[in-house]
Amino acid sequence: MLRSLIHEYALVVYASLLLAAALTWPTLRYPLHTLPQDVWDPSRQAWQIAWAGHTLLTDPTRLWQSNAFFPLTDSFAFGNSLLGYAPAGMIGEGPLAATLRYNILYVLAHALLAIGGYALVRQLGAGRTGAAVAAVAFAYAPWRLAQEGHLDIISAGGIPLALAMLARGHGWSLRRGLRPERRSAKWAAAGWLVAIWQVSLGFSLGVPFLFVLGLILVVIIFGVPIRRLRRPAERPVLGWRLWITDTLGPLILAGVSGLIAIPYFRVPDSGPAGTEIAFFSPPLRSLLIGPAESRIWGAPHDVPRSSLGWPAEMGLLPGFVLYALALAGLAFSIWTLRQRLLLLAALAVTIVLTLGTNFYEGRWTYLPLFGHLPGSLGLRIPGRLMLWATLLLAVLAAGAVAEFVRRAEHLSEQRIPPWPGPWLRLATFMPLLLVLVEGWSATAHPVVPAQPVAMRTVSGPMLVLPTAALTDQTVMLWSTTRFQPMVNGSGGFAASRQAELRTNVQNFPDPASIEYLRSLNIDRVLLLRSQSAGTPWERVGDIPVDALGIRREDVDDAVVFHLR
């Protein structure tokens, strides 16, 4: 028992958790009251996790019919569902619990990125130092800092972890090849389970991951028979347990993915795929530009970043230190020359896909793979494929660092006594220190607006005023106490319908807006006085309504208009 607590991977978990808490600070300073980056998207995603936990406990059949966007159907599919976090959503209730839950998951997601990166690179055959450098470079790459407000994009640690488990289960490593004696159906099964969990978090990262897993399956399906024909005397490459695991695992993964995808295919499309993909496709120079949230490169890259069409998704610098280490990894490495060339080719393909329509208009690259899929799957931002480019760069960098450590150890063996000196030890850890510094974050942590008392008492279906594309996401978070049906909602989908709604209620309370809301079966309008200053509804609470056939009621810090 004691040995398991100081096992290599136990130490990796401890270090990853401490590093995540430090590099995401001050997330855990006021975890009940602040959110990372901004209060908009994190508020909506905190609501998503809370809704998933709440509805699975109370009425699982209504999972996709959320309380927001009333009376639209399948409204929970208006974005990555984060279903894999639903068990956490079952603990606690209300905005404070949702905020705390989000912040804890946010820190844990960073830790899992490092744990997964370390496990994969270690399984591929790199030493501890090389794997540590790769893990930190993958988890805290500068480009990822622009995504700190998107928990669905940060939550990618299951990808390298699943690949590591699958490789371990099949007894394969990049450095040592296939070792049948190290096969383990349990590890393979664990890999498929982690893959299922990862896909359940969202399709923005899940669909490319499914493509990669499909490619691996193709290699296994065709590679095993070829190996048996070439080496008939060798023991079977896969045992019967692995055959069963590799049959059931993909089938269950495909089944779960298909079930989750059904409501996404029912959601109305957000617009022409080619137009959206072209808008979000980053230019090649994006790979050298850091995001505003980078403490090292944020200010120095202000000017080049301003030239980008959508800087929030186009500052794709994985780190100049990582570039340098990967380049060194092409020259000297523990990986063979053939393996390095294969990694380089995979990196080139990934970068081409990351450029979207900026590489021959994407006709033979991004569009055939993702252009025909509905926008609700979240695949119209090519820059997010930088995840895979970063992972490949990290593997190349790990090869160089591992080779450097190997040579340093060989050099130390010539010493008397045969022990590395302090400067040699420092040199082996310098890449890790440099990668850590380049991943230093300047992410803001704004305070979440306090929940109005009326949001805990007023029932729906209702409209909450004021309503706007950004502030509605905070209203969604406030609704996590009662989850009352409300027409408010925001997050990228149903945008035209929500814009029409806001236009139609801009003059509320007037006969036209009242009739419009009644046609949507809205019973109440809740005006939040503290939030209405400077909006078209600033004076609404003082307008006489007796002649309009509705009733007004003052409730705590708000006004409730009863339409029926």
Keywords, separated by commas or semicolons:
22 helices; two-stranded antiparallel ribbon; mainly alpha; 564 residues
In short:
This protein has 564 residues and is mainly alpha-helical. It has helices at residues 2-5, 8-23, 41-58, 86-89, 94-124, 128-139, 151-154, 158-169, 185-201, 203-230, 240-266, 273-280, 302-306, 311-314, 320-331, 337-354, 366-371, 386-412, 422-438, 471-478, 495-504, 511-519; strands at residues 172-173, 177-178, 462-465, 524-528, 551-555, 558-562.
Q: For the report, how would you describe the main beta sheet?
A: 4 strands, mixed
What string, H for helix and E for strand, traces the elements in order?
A: HHHHHHHHEEHHHHHHHHHHHEHHHEEE
**Can you tell me the residue ranges where pLDDT is under 50 for at least 5 consecutive residues?**
none
Number of helices: 22
Question: Would you count the extended β strands for me?
Answer: 6
Kindly, what is the distance between the CA atoms of the first and last residues, rounded to a whole number of angstroms? Answer: 65 Å
Structural class: mainly alpha
Computed CA radius of gyration, to the nearest angstrom = 26 Å
Biggest sheet: strand arrangement: 3-4-6-5
What's the overall geometry? Answer: elongated
Beta-strand content bin: under 5%
Mean pLDDT: 91
Percent helix: 40-55%
